[in-house]
Amino acid sequence: MRSTGARASCEDATPNKRDSRWLIKDTKRAMEHRDEVEALRAEVSALRAELAEARAARDRERCLAAGYRELFHGVPTAMILTDSAGRFVDMNEAFVALLGYTLDDLRGRSPDEISHPDDLPVERTLFASLARGTRPFVEFEKRYRRKDGTWMWARLFTGVVRNEQGEIIASYGSLKDAEEEFSTTVTSVRAVEARNRALLDAVPDLLFVMGRDTRFLDCKPARDVPLLVSPAQFLGRRLVDVFGTDWSRRQADIIRDVAEDGEPRMDRYSVETPDGPMHFEAMFSRSSTGEVVVAIRDVTKRVQAEAERDRLAREVSAQVNELRRWKALADRAPDGISIVGLDGELTYANAAFEDMLDRRPLVGTNVAHVLATAAEARSIDTALRAEGQYRGDLVLLRGDRTQIATQGVLFVMTNEDGTPASFGTIIRDRTEERRAEEERALLREQLIVAQQKLIEELETPILPVAPGVLVMPLVGRVDAARAERLLGSVLAGTTAHGARMVILDITGVPVVDAEVAEGLVRAARAVRLLGAETLLTGVGALVARELVAHAEEIAVLRPCSTLERAVSIALGMSRRGSGPKAS
């Protein structure tokens, strides 16, 4: 039973195994077919991309060809296109307008048919160089026959077009009307010549064209530079032969040197004229043709201006030096010196002024801040306006606000036209001067007092000649003041010496008036009150007459004929102790 069952199982398994093999083969075949499909699809995509690129390239080529055609037919220059055999293929409207032919007239024909026979050899030679590749293009002038049979000169610019193998597949050419171009060139040249002539005419210099042998070849006159001689006298002649001066010989050497080495040179010279010397500046340069162009400029006014400038510079230098000397003097002056602007600000102050006011710097300070009072400022302003200067004492303020007594001079400084420019000040410190004056005044007062005392002593001398006897000789005029001093001196001497007799000698008194007589009487009365007697000597006729008028008072004055007599009486009375008697 087991074997029968096993065989049945094997028989059942055989068909299934066969089906699986077929399935594997079908699967492999399907996968291979799919790979082929994918490859075909990729190939189709690549072909499509190539097709799109080819179409895009074709479109670009069409656009480029269209652009070239538009450019070819749109340019204003006559253009032609020929094939490899040299036959007309295309031409633009400018070519038709230039020669009169249409494309139908010339298509398939050679340009030689409308070219002048005499120009063909040269054209073929040049085109052969193009064919060999020795030249990229050629340009030359040739003649073309127009459709109306006339000939015209044209400038032909031509080249060739080659394929990738280097073979010529076409040629092109552009034509310009040479006659029109020549006319345009002539017009341009004439315009340039006109401009050059205008430029030359505008140049203020006198121009000469000189040969290497220093001969005058041409001349361009100038408006502002005179010709010393007429052109007929110098054209064609040598420079030295015309002028024969030192400067002409020097310039002849310069012309030869410039003609030789081409280096520009300059020279200055002067010419004497009836109106005075004229000064010129000459510039030498070599032209492209080898001649020497000489440009001469009249620099007389410039030389005169330079001379005037130098003169003014010397004057200014002298003035500056003088100002420096004055400034050095002002800087070192013992007095305060300053300059005040019209606005009242100090623009200069020397060291002495700064030391005087103990302020640094003073420059920039307003003068109103230096004056002690506004009244001084007003008085200075009034004097400056009325008289142009102020002289007097000034009280200034120092830096510590203390006052300083000064003496100043302020004056107006003017410009050349007389207008005020600034104010000058010279200030002197009077502090020491005033102190010295006060000392001198005190000494003078003391001297006066001493002199007065001496004079008083000399005017009223008291001479003790014996115990109790005093003599007072009087000399000179006696006025009321002296009479008072006489009285005081007599009383003082009588008291000091204990005198009993006082002798007044008036021999030296020239005039005795009532006032003098009264003074003598008063002195005698005062002496009597002190217990002493008074004797009067030296009485002349005029004095006696004046004293007689005072007879009542003269009793106190006991006269004596002479001083010796009076001294003798006084001595006798002194010994006796009694009063004197008249003698």
UniProtKB/TrEMBL annotation:
Chain coiled-coil ranges: 30-57
Keywords: Coiled coil, Phosphoprotein
PROSITE patterns, per database record: PAC (PS50113), PAS (PS50112), STAS (PS50801)
Domain STAS, chain residue ranges per copy: 459-570
Gene3D superfamilies xrefs: PAS domain (3.30.450.20), STAS domain (3.30.750.24)
Residues of the PAC domain: 138-190
CDD domains, per the entry: PAS, STAS_RsbR_RsbS_like
Residue intervals of the PAS domain: 64-134
NCBIfam families reported for this sequence: sensory_box
Name of the protein in question: PAS domain S-box protein
Provenance organism: Polyangium fumosum
